[in-house]
Amino acid sequence: MRGGIMLEHPTSTVRPGTGAVGRRLRAPLAGIAAACALATLAACSGPGSESGSSADTSPTAVNTAVGNTPATLTLFSAAGLQSYEQGLADAFHAKYPKITVKLRVESDNNYNTVLPRLLASDSAPDIAAPSDLLGGVKDGLLTNLDAYDKAYGWSEKVPASALAPGRVSNGVIGSGSLYQAGGSAGPLVGVFYNKELAAKVGMKKVPASVAELEAVMAKAKKSGITPIVASNQDGLIGHLYNLLLGDYMGAQALSDIVYHKPSATLDTPEAVKATKTLQRWIKAGYFASDVNALNQEASYGQFTGGKGLFFFQGSWITQTIDKNFKGKYGVFPMPPAEKGGKYAGMTSNTLAFSIAARSKNKDAAALFLDFLTTPEAAKVAVDNGYAAVTSDTEKAATPSLSGTLTEQIQTGYAAIAADNGFDSWLQNSTPAVNTKLNQQLQLLVSGKVEPAAMVKTLQTTYADALKSS
C-alpha cells in the first residue's frame, strides 16, 4: 500500500508511477492492486506547493535522425518491471541496432527514494519514470519534451488522455508542457461477465449504454441471479463508482479532480447522478445482501463460483480467476452513460517515460520514447499482459462478446483510447478522500447516506485536504 490507498490487493506490489496517478504496475493481469494505478501520492500536495518557477530544461536543438548513430542509453527500472522493460529495450535495439538500452535495476521498495537523487547526480539515467513528476519538473530534473513532441508528432499519435498525466502547467498535472511521453498501454477496468449466466438472461451483445446494462441486470434479478458481484469491506465497489463518475462527469472532469486542477469540483449534478445510479442498483437488490462484509478474495470466489453475472474489476485479475474459471467469462468496457456517448475508464500508462535533464543522449532517448508509440512496443506490452493501442488499432475498436479474452481486453482498452476516455480513481486525489470514500460507500450500501450528501462530504474532504497540504 502507498499513500494511504486502501484498494490495493494485499499480495501485490505496486510499481512506481508518476504524478497523482501511479502508473507502473507489477504483474498487470494478476494480483495487482485493485486500484492498480494507485502508487505514490507525491503529487497530491496542493497545486500551490509545486507552482514555483522551474529551470528551463528544453533542449537547445532536436535531432530525430539518430537511429544510425551509436549510443548507449540507461533506463532506470524497478525490479518488478525488469522483464517487461528489458523486452522494450530488446525490441528497440532490434529496430535500431546501433543504440543499446541498458537497464539499471533498483528494488521496488527503493525505486522512488533512489531515483530523485540519481536524477540530480552526474550519473543520472537517461530514461526513467519518476513518481514525483511535479517535484522533478520544479527542480529542473526532467527534460521538457515539447520540442520532441512537435518533431515526432506524439500529440497526434497518442490519445490525449494517455499523455495528460505527463503534462505540467503551473504546478498542476494534466495540461501544459510534456515531461513524460511514449505510447499507450495499461490495464482495462471494465465489466467482467459470466458467459453462462449472460446467455441465460439473453445478453447477446455488449450493452451500449448504462440503461441497457441496467436492463440486463433487471433480467438477471428476475431470474434469481445476483446481477453484481462485489466486495465493499475493502471499498471495492469504488471501481464501479469511479466508472459511473467517469461516465456522467466525463473523463476530463474526473481527471481534473485527481490532478488538483484549480476550480475542479466533485459537487456537480453529474456526480450526484452517478451516485444516484449506484444507489438505485443497491436498492434494487443488484448486490449480495452481505456485500459490505465481503472482501476482495471472497468476491473472486463468488464470481468464479457462478454466484453473479457482472464483476466490475480490472484486467489484472485474469490470471487469478483463470485458475478456476478460464474460458467461462469475458469482459467489455463500461458502457457510456447514453447510447452513442463516449467511453471512459480508469487505467495507468506503462509505456510512458521521462528523459533526465542531465542526460547526454537526449535525442537517442527521445527516439526510444517515439519507439514506444509503435506496434513493436505495443506487442511487448501485450505479451506482458497489458492492453495497448497504436494510432491504427484504436480506430478499429468495437467492443464485442465474441473473440478471446485477450481480444476483448484489447478492444475495450482501444475503445476508451479512441474516445480519449482514460481517467483515474477519485481515491487518487488525496489520502483523505480515499479513506472517506470507503466510509461513504459503506454508508450508501447500508442506506445511511443520500447521494447529494455523500458527494458534498467527499468534496469537502477533498477541499480541506488541499487547503492543509
TrEMBL record:
Q: Which organism is it from?
A: Streptomyces himalayensis subsp. aureolus
- Which domain of life does this protein belong to? Bacteria
The identity of this protein, by name, is Extracellular solute-binding protein
Keyword field contains NADP: no
| Keywords attached to this entry | Cell membrane, Lipoprotein, Membrane, Palmitate, Signal
Recorded hits in InterPro entries, A to Z, give: Bact_solute-bd_prot1 (IPR050490), SBP (IPR006059)
Q: Which residues form the signal peptide?
A: none
